[in-house]
UniProtKB/TrEMBL annotation:
This is Cell division protein FtsA. Keywords: Cell cycle, Cell division, Cell membrane, Membrane. Self-interacts. Interacts with FtsZ. It is a peripheral membrane protein. The gene is ftsA.
Amino acid sequence: MIELYESQRAMRNMRKAAMQRGVIAILDVGSSKIACLVLRFDGTDQREDDGVGSLAGQSGFRVIGAATTRSRGVRFGEISTMAETERAIRTAVQAAQKMAQIRVDHVIACFAGAAPRSYGLAGQVDISSPAVTEQDVARVLSACDVPDFGPSREVLHAQPVNFALDHRSGLSDPRGQVGQVLATDMHMVTVDAQAIQNLAYCVKRCDLELAGIASSAYASGISALVEDEQELGAACIDMGGGATSVSVFLRKHMIYTDSVRMGGDHVTGDISMGLQVPAATAERIKTFYGGLVATGRDDSEMIKIGGETGDWEHDRRTVSRAELIGIMRPRVEEILEEVRARLDAAGFDHLPSQQIVLTGGASQIPGLDGLASKVLGQQVRLGRPMRVHGLPQAATGPGFASAVGLCLFAAHPQDEWWDFEIPHDKYPVRSLKRAFRWFKDNW
């Protein structure tokens, strides 16, 4: 684990160095679009001291550049064609740099795929000093028994979500408190190693340095959930183009994440096959006329399909909106059924609050909130990302939830395992194939 630990610490140090220089870029690599935001920091990087892993406010930075481009070479949230993805990332970054009138060298990236898995770990140590110190927190984190998750997977997040000191549980920060036995609960997320390697290599080929990496589900939850929802318990469902991410938050920490390999692009594909039209036409029809709840008027509302095949009869076809809804609804129901299975596996029903927030580009389909409340059986609302300083109006929609959340993550990251000086005798001894081996080769 030493290589992973050191590579994550190296990225943390790069982030701090970039923030001291005052500028850093955010890169959201999605299946339908690639978004890049350039952040300028005003030098007031003071974290609010309300606990280990706390989420601080969004003060201290503003967005000075923003750009989006159509995603190429990305399927199911994972890179499938390196050269095309590299060109798309270059296009987005260069446009954002032009708007910001400044060059950026460091980016923090997020992605939605890579089959994330959640693990709940527990550790316990005896305290030798009168009060809990930083070294005690490091020792208890290293005492957590890491499961054998396999050589083809890598740790993406490892966050302490709860501390207990002498039978007093629910502590957010035990440092400075008096006790004899310190215990912790840690949430660890592993993802497919190859997906991270591809993303890291693609960023490197774009002449950029990777200063951080995060799960899109985590970033979306940070920006779309209000503070009370993060505290009492809520699920954030980020419906993107190629994947739907699920994250569950409690006490301001993500305690579960998973993803469904279906999204808005699959709805577009169904329309394309059902109406025998190109994908671009299907996307236009879905955007302008799509819906999930048919009414009596929809039978008489006809939609001109159009086309450029040269067949006059074929290009002048019309279809009723009710027929379009009949194509879209089964796929959306399938996605929501998969999401419900993930939430049931996470024990979502046992949380104090069961609020569900829908966000992401595909969440804008009319009638989705009503259908989701029927399928999921919970309170459902549509979520938009938190407003941050300088964000253009075009980037305030649900499709930018993960990008805005990544801004908050860049400014005030929650404490993770590698933010503490783990004692060297506590490193796990088993060797693993490291996802970030290229750090050694390039630094």
